[in-house]
Amino acid sequence: MTREEEFEDLRPLLFSIAYRILGSVSEAEDAVQEAWLRHQAAAARPASTKAYLSAVVTRISIDVLRSARLRREEYPGPWFPEPLLSDPYEDPARSAELADSLSMAALLLLERLSPLERAVFVLREVFGFGFPEIASAVGRSEAACRQLAVRARRHMDEGRPRFQADRIERERLAGRFLDAFRDGDVDALRELLAADVHLISDSGGKAPQWGKGVLGADKVARVLAALLPPFARIGGVVEPHEVNGQPGAIFRDRDGRVVNTWTLDILDGQVQTIRAVINPDKLGHMGLVADAWAIVHDTYQAQRATDRPEEPSAP
């Protein structure tokens, strides 16, 4: 097998490692490409190409994450990971870990860790690497990596909800929620929303957003019920779609361009959080991106035409 063939076989794994460390599709793709260039330039072939390339892409990702820390701290408004529609890497033996680590909630918890803790956690808890391989990848001793893993696991466990909804339950409830959303049924929406539900968006200052978000079942239900009819009248479409391994949706304009994505955090039979990614810089990997400002303007005009006085927020 040639170097290129070996690399292509490992590309899904390398991307999945990099994405979980970085929370960015574009940066993960760049890290994988840089790993290939280094592999291609190396004089000798490693004993284990998988171990070597996993270590290389991890080191690159750690360096990128360190340089991105300040940018994320200064980011205008809430920062969410770039939405990922499907994980290219599959491993039946670790399917639960892979799925859990891909959610927006888990990736936001990972943001609280140091770059080294994050890398060690991803390699150990998500992909099941041994500590000798992890130590080589992050440039620390095995003992230090074990300590990093313990700290990272503790921080992650402290932030996770105690009881997770199973996949079938989540999909069933998400279907009911999206049906109620399409129907503009305030009562049905209110019933499906947690009392302290949070509707929040990431625009990066480059698209409309809900300020600090909308909080509470009644307010969120009313915002959602008022949102879709005028959006649909200008040709907008809500496409149910799994996003980051969670129930969610992709909003598109009349020409099929992406407006934003939603992910739904579901727990205890209710929607706890709705996260919208509207920043166009985070949507480009999904295809052509719509002008969200124009969409809001056109939606508002459609709403005014039917004598609804309140200007809608961005979907």
Automatic annotation (TrEMBL):
Gene Ontology cellular component annotations, sorted alphabetically: DNA-directed RNA polymerase complex
Alphabetized NCBIfam families for the sequence: PRK09636.1, sigma70-ECF, SigX4
GO biological process, one term: DNA-templated transcription initiation
Example of a GO MF term: sigma factor activity
This protein's name: DNA-directed RNA polymerase sigma-70 factor
Assembly, per entry: Interacts transiently with the RNA polymerase catalytic core formed by RpoA, RpoB, RpoC and RpoZ (2 alpha, 1 beta, 1 beta' and 1 omega subunit) to form the RNA polymerase holoenzyme that can initiate transcription.
Recorded family membership: Belongs to the sigma-70 factor family. ECF subfamily.
Domain RNA polymerase sigma-70 region: from-to ranges: 7-69
Keyword ATP-binding: no
Entry keyword Transcription regulation: yes
Organism per entry: Actinoallomurus iriomotensis
Keywords: DNA-directed RNA polymerase, Sigma factor, Transcription, Transcription regulation
SUPFAM superfamilies reported for this sequence: NTF2-like, Sigma2 domain of RNA polymerase sigma factors, Sigma3 and sigma4 domains of RNA polymerase sigma factors
